[in-house]
Design brief:
Helix content is 37%, strand content 17%. By secondary structure, the chain is α+β, with helices and mostly antiparallel strands. Strands 5-7-6-9-4-8 form a six-stranded antiparallel beta sheet, with helices on both faces. A hairpin with a 5-residue loop joins strand 1 (16-19) and strand 2 (25-28). The longest helix is centred in the N-terminal third of the chain and has 17 residues, at 55-71. The two termini are 15 Å apart.
Length: 297
């Protein structure tokens, strides 16, 4: 029913149509007819919603509602009782998740020097002299493989410092090993098996001594969806290491949710992004009631 309704609505002229700064076309069509709104209400009444992106905004909306209710007790719903959402079917082919790569500005020199040896204790390791060749192989490998590029050596005594980069592909020897379970004892298997969890627990923590608390507070780590930009940062001397991953699937997100857990931070980048501010829900306007009827639909 929702697919049928979407086809009907999509045939109408858009109220708003524009291209954003990435060249992505955005179109907005309102659904105002009561019978069409009833279809949406009926079809979604028993449907679970996964908050795949924007959980901070949702939590903020809940806190705002609690604060408003504490000051204003009303028997009827108010504007602060509602929050806008964009709903996308999990099986929609247009739902794309991009990986979020890590760029670490500074790594201990001894950890860089011993990286390959230490990594072989836990991973099957393939070494590459060309980081771009590593990246191409990573994209072909799918889930369960990590890409690492490190500043490996410089030319001492030279007027110009030549930065050399070495790269590796890492595949965990035993995915359900006791090592991984011991590294993340409080996490369900659905979380432990994510590539980002393996990277943080067995590479950052075990090999480079980058602890979880340090990562949460910044830790000299930057995040990017552009794998080549991450490699360039190492090649240009702006970072000591780039750590690359393939993206998780929407099924991974569902399994983690089913296990009662949440995805690790910076593990998904849903694309394309909706434009912020294209639609607003007024909370203090005299027409808030009328606006709420439209936006909540």
């Amino acid at each position: 029913e929702l697919d049928r309704l979407r086809e009907i609505v999509s045939a109408r002229a858009p109220m708003i149509e524009l291209n954003d700064d990435l060249g992505i076309g955005n179109q907005l069509r309102p659904i105002e007819a009561p019978e069409e709104i009833a279809i949406v209400q009926r079809e979604l009444a028993a449907t679970r919603v996964l908050i795949a992106d924007g959980h901070h905004r949702y939590e903020t909306a809940l806190n705002y509602r609690r604060a408003c209710r504490a000051e204003y007790d009303s028997p009827t719903p108010q504007a602060f009782d509602y929050v806008m959402m964009a709903l996308v079917p999990c099986d929609d082919p247009g739902l794309v998740i991009l990986p979020t790569h890590r760029v670490v500005k500074r790594l201990a020199a001894d950890a860089i020097a011993s990286f390959a040896t230490r990594a072989r204790e836990l991973f099957e390791v393939n070494e590459f002299d060309d980081p771009n060749a590593m990246l191409a192989r990573l994209k072909q490998s799918g889930r369960g493989v990590l890409g690492v590029a490190l500043r490996s050596a410089t030319s001492p005594g030279s007027s110009t410092t030549e930065i050399k980069v070495k790269a590796w592909l890492l595949t965990l020897k035993e995915k359900d090993s006791a090592t991984l379970a011991a590294a993340l004892p409080g996490a369900p298997p659905e979380v432990r098996e994510l590539d980002v969890s393996i990277l943080h627990a067995l590479v950052f923590d075990r090999i480079f001594s980058i602890r979880a608390e340090e990562i949460r507070t910044g830790g000299g780590i930057e995040y990017t969806i552009d794998a080549r930009a991450a490699l360039y940062a190492v090649r240009d001397g702006r970072a000591d290491g780039a750590f690359l991953m393939n993206p998780p699937s929407i099924r991974d997100v569902e399994l983690v949710s089913d296990a009662g857990a949440t995805m690790p931070e910076k593990s998904t980048y849903f694309y394309p992004k909706l434009l912020t501010g294209l639609v607003l829900n007024p909370l203090d306007d005299e027409d808030a009631g009328a606006a709420r009827a439209k936006t909540s639909a």
